[in-house]
Amino acid sequence: MNTSYPRPRILVSRCLGFDACRYDGQQLRSRVVELLRDHVDFVPVCPEIEAGLGVPRPPIRLCWENEQIDVRQPAENRSVTDVLKKAALNFIDEADGCDGAILKSKSPSCALTDAKIYRSINKPQFLRRDSGIFGTLVLRKMENKAVDDEQRLTNLALREHFLIKLYVWARFRAIAEQPKMGELVSFHASHKLLFLAYNQSRFRVCGKITANHERLPVSDVFGRYAAELGQVLVRPFRRQAMVNTLYHAYGWIAEHLSSEEKQYIINTIEEYRDERIPLQGVTRLIEAQAIRFKRDYILDQVLLRPFPAQLSDLSDSGKGREVT
Fold first, then answer.
1. Could you tell me which residues come within 8 angstroms of residue 282 by beta carbon, excluding any fewer than 6 positions away?
2. SS3 320
3. What distance lies between CA 297 and its chain's CA centroid?
4. Which among 246, 223, 236 has a CA at the least distance from the CA of 163?
5. pLDDT score of 259
6. Buried b (16+ CB within 10 A) or exposed e, 86-107
7. Which of 128, 189, 191, 295 has the smallest C-beta neighbourhood within 10 Å, fewest atoms?
């Protein structure tokens, strides 16, 4: 079993533990960023500093004016839309080659979903929440990569999905740098159980792309696979789908087990179904039996160890449990 991991690249808001660059001069701490420090290469960015707004600086506000966003500094009574958009465009190229992003929630520049938008400039009234200036570009550029904010990643299910997605993309990037069909076939085979838990129909489409019956150039096959891979991982897996996949994995070792051992594993899977134990409580049990009986097919599956064990963190804020 190969337990080596690629080193992902993550675009990250600079204020999340890298620099005291917030508007109030503070530097924030993020548990997930600290957890990842020794395992990934971070690319810190701050569009507001790049725009020359300084530290400390008067807060900025997103205003919906004349059917478009105007970024204002109310204390200065000025628009900073053009300089902030230019800075954001300068930074977006940093996303090239990144497998994911962790951006600051609620930030007018970096937020992905929850920046406050106000109705007008002169009479500000809350209108809606949306992505910030830079966050919008990141979502467009990175599409279905592992992109989230530090607040949502305090939720266990969302964090687990983020880490799985991050390492899938890092593995794919590693083989796509010098694309070979054999590498893609191996990648697809080793991710079978994981992808079945995420999206069976999309997994089968990936299989057809990998088979390459049309005999397309390798670069075209990798491009098509990457597009479909984004769809496989677009949403967190459903617990029931994962339970079905775990029973599928169990089937590969069941014939060697005693009736007591079979019942123990079945009970463990059902405990996972009832949210009483984490996924690793089941996968490590299956892995142990696969080692015992030398079931290489199961041992080669990414599902057993989708990301480094050191990144496992069972803390859960309970926020954002709606993972649809």
1. 246, 265, 268, 269, 272
2. coil
3. 26
4. 236
5. 96
6. ebbeebbebbeebbbbbbbbeb
7. 128
Question: Under a CB-based contact definition with an 8 Å cutoff, are residues 319 and 155 in contact?
Answer: yes
Could you give the count of Cα atoms lying within 13 Å of 293 in the half-sphere of its Cβ?
17
Q: Are residues 102 and 212 in the same domain?
A: no
If asked whether residues 213 and 228 sit together in one domain, one would say: yes
Residues 300 and 202 in one domain: yes
pLDDT tens readout for residues 17-53: 999 999 998 889 999 999 999 999 999 999 999 999 9
pLDDT tens-digit readout, 165-217: 999 999 999 999 999 999 999 999 999 999 999 999 999 999 999 999 999 99
Domain of residue 304, residue span:
156-324
- Centroid of chain to Cα 91: 20
Residue ranges of E strands in the chain: 9-13, 41-45, 61-65, 68-73, 78-79, 100-103, 115-118, 126-130, 146-149
- In angstroms, the CA 320 to CA 159 distance is 11
Output the six-digit token pair for 239.
């617990």
Tokens 């984004």 correspond to 230
Q: For residues 247 and 324, state if they share a domain.
A: yes
Same domain? 182 vs 317: yes
Same domain for 148 and 205, yes or no, is no
Residue 122 lies inside a defined structural domain of this protein: no
The answer to whether 78 touches 51, Cβ cutoff 8 Å, is no
Domain presence at residue 89: yes
Q: Cα(216)–Cα(280) distance, rounded to whole angstroms?
A: 39
* Whole-number Å distance between alpha carbons of 164 and 236: 9
Task: Please count the structural domains in the chain.
Answer: 2
Q: What is the CA radius of gyration of the chain?
A: 22
Contact partners, residue 105, CB within 8 Å, separation at least 6: 111, 112, 114, 149, 150, 151, 152
For residue 162, give the amino acid letter: F
